[in-house]
Amino acid sequence: MDKKIVIPGDFLSDDVKNATDGTYVEDGKVFAAVYGLASLKNQIRVVPLSGKYIPKRGDMVIATVSEVTFSNWITDIRSPYDGLLHISEFPKRIENDDMAKHINVGESVMALIKDVDPIMKVELTLNDRRLRRIDEGRIIQVAPSKVPRLIGRNGSMITLLKNNTNCNVFVGQNGRIWITGKERDMDFAEKIIFKIENESHVSGLTERINRFIKEEKGESAREPEYEQEPEIEEEDIETDKTVEKTEDIPVEEETQEEDAPEGILDELLGDGK
Amino acid sequence: MSKPEKFIEDGIRLDGRKFDELRPIKFEVGVLNRADGSCYLEMGGNKVVAAVYGPREVHPRHMQKSTTAIVRYKYNMASFSVEDRKRPGPDRRSSEVSKVSRQALEPVIFVEKYPRSAIDIFVEVLQADAGTRAAGINAASVALADAGIPMKSLVSACAVGKVDDTLVLDLNKDEDNYGQADMPVAVTQNGNITLLQMDGHLTSDEFKIGLEMAKKGCADIYQMQKAALMAKFSKSAEAESNE
Questions:
Q1: In a domain, B161, yes or no
Q2: Which of A47, A205, B19, B201 could form a disulfide with A236 if both were Cys (CB 3.0 to 4.6 A apart)?
Q3: Could you say which of A8, A54, A202 has the minimum Cβ distance to residue B239?
Q4: What's chain A's Rg over C-alpha atoms?
Q5: CA B20 to chain centre
Q6: What chain A residue is nearest to B35 in terms of C-alpha separation?
Q7: Does residue A188 sit in helix, strand or coil?
Q8: Could you list the residue range(s) of the whole structural domain that residue B46 is in?
Q9: In angstroms, rounded to a whole number, what is the distance separating the alpha carbons of residues B73 and A116?
Q10: Sequence-ordered list of residues with C-beta below 8 angstroms from that of B234, at least 6 positions apart, any chain
């Protein structure tokens, strides 16, 4: 893997055309703009090792309502900018007076970022059958920069997590994670997620997590209802591919298509009767 | 301490350094859990902590700019950082240091990436021993990188001064207090000057030579800043190369 740690100002390449995120161009040369991991093949990019969540169009996030105004829900999306959810973006037609009945202050929703304008006005939407209000399970938070690791290549890590904990797990791009399942299973899922977050930069992650899951299961004498899926030829570290994909397609869809026959979203929708 | 009779004897300074030698420097990245980025720095007798928060919402609201982020820098000396207790709180000197330090870092930060937000930098001096503004800038620039804030380059700073009619790099307390000149300089990686102040007197020739000395010192500091950032994730670097 041609990846290495770079700091701001490090020279990366002369190939100005392929410079993308995390880089800047000066005097016909490409330099790193952030402290992170640089990858030079195909596109030149630097994936930051830390940083705040910056909203991007097409991201799926978990938003928490902080204020209900005349026609907007103002939500916290864990970024420097508020997310605005307009009444017209609610799946069905509702009256202004009833807004708080549908989503009140303190409640959370899965939302899609519909648009981000140049002054960072963030518009959210619920107009998608996959999106809904969160009224069960729990929400935990990880650093947004760890989200790609948590999802894994083509959603492999998340599949591993779901299959071993009997929980539904939805990872928002803003680092909020929604888990639903039995209390004990959720505790277990939470434990694994925090382990992934803490050790995401150490080599052989998937393997270690696999081992961790086995050990934990053995200790608690929990009979595995799901057979463990063998992880084939897996990269423990998110690759350019994953990152590229997450940009335009919400990760969950990706999982749905490639890994799990019954994707999380269907499950989520299914159990919400 | 009173003024020493001689600052330099046989080409060796009072603390045993050569005229163009820096004091020992130690960086530590990510020392604070609640900050987005942080750095602890020991530079000779100076001990400073820098914390970076942001980009985050601007309060008070009227300070926000609709097209760029604002950078706020707060330099503060702890009351126990100097021999005689420093009266706590902002004063004329710390306001000035805050302002020039902010201006030393602002040109390298891509503020246009985060409109309507603020990047807050706090520098606390725990122990002062001349050259705290340079130490503060060095620590702050590493903390900014640690916070994942996009920048053109790191900024490195050090001072050059004159004692016994000789130019010396990185003044210590006595040289600063009783010397003839003190000139803090901050430069980017490619040598652009972002801070240049001078207290005392230098001839124009001395100024030119002094500036080159300071730039060389900054280049050395830059390498240490880089090494400190690399060390934080050395494990992941190994992981990457093993693949």
A1: yes
A2: A205
A3: A202
A4: 20
A5: 18
A6: A51
A7: helix
A8: 16-83+98-229
A9: 29
A10: none
Residues 6+ apart with CB under 8 A from B47: B40, B41, B125, B126, B127
Nearest CA to B51 out of B118, B99, B121 is that of B121
In angstroms, rounded to a whole number, what is the distance separating the alpha carbons of residues B30 and B38? 5
Tokens coding B72: 């706020």
Give Cα separations from B205 to A132, A156, B180 (angstroms). Answer: 71, 65, 15
- What number of C-beta contacts closer than 8 Å exist between A and B? 116
Q: Which of B23, B81, B90 is nearest to B48 (CA)?
A: B81
Spell out the alpha helix ranges (H) of A152-235. Answer: 156-165, 183-199, 205-219
User: Half-sphere exposure of A95 toward its Cβ, with a 13 Å CA cutoff?
Assistant: 3
Pair A230, A163: CB distance under 8 Å = no
Contact B152 A202 (CB under 8 A): no
Determine the distance from the C-alpha atom of residue A75 to the mean position of all C-alpha atoms in its chain, rounded to a whole number.
Answer: 18
Q: Which of B117, B147, B239 is facing A203, going by the closest CB pair?
A: B239
Most confident of A5-19, A203-217, A228-242: A5-19
Which stretches does DSSP call E strand in B128-203? Answer: 155-163, 166-169, 181-188, 193-196, 199-200
Residue B102: name the closest of B78, B113, B118 by CA: B118
Asked if the C-beta of B189 comes within 8 angstroms of chain A's C-beta atoms, the answer is: yes
Asked whether the beta carbons of residue A24 and residue B239 sit closer than 8 angstroms, the reply is no
What CATH number did the domain enclosing B51 receive? 3.30.230.70
- Here the contacts of A227-233 (C-beta below 8 Å, separation 24 or greater) are A228/A163, A228/A164, A229/A159, A229/A160, A229/A163, A231/A156, A231/A160, A231/A206
Q: Retrieve residue A93's tokens.
A: 């037609």
Q: How many domains does chain B have?
A: 1
Range in A41-45, A116-120, B14-18, B173-177 with the lowest mean pLDDT: A41-45
Structure-block tokens of residue B155: 């900024």
Q: Are B39 and B89 in contact (CB under 8 A)?
A: no
Which residue is closest to A31 within chain B, CA to CA? B152
Residues of A in contact with B145 (CB under 8 A): 7-8, 34-35
B186 close to B137: Cβ distance less than 8 angstroms: yes
Q: Can you tell me the ipTM of this complex?
A: 0.89
Q: Is residue B7 a part of any domain in this protein? A: no
Dihedral angle computed from the Cα positions of residues A95, A101, A107 and A113, in that order, rounded to the nearest 10 degrees = -20
In a domain, B239, yes or no: no
Decide if B9 is inside a domain: no
pLDDT digit string, tens, across residues A58-116: 999 999 999 999 999 999 999 999 999 999 999 999 999 999 999 999 999 999 999 99
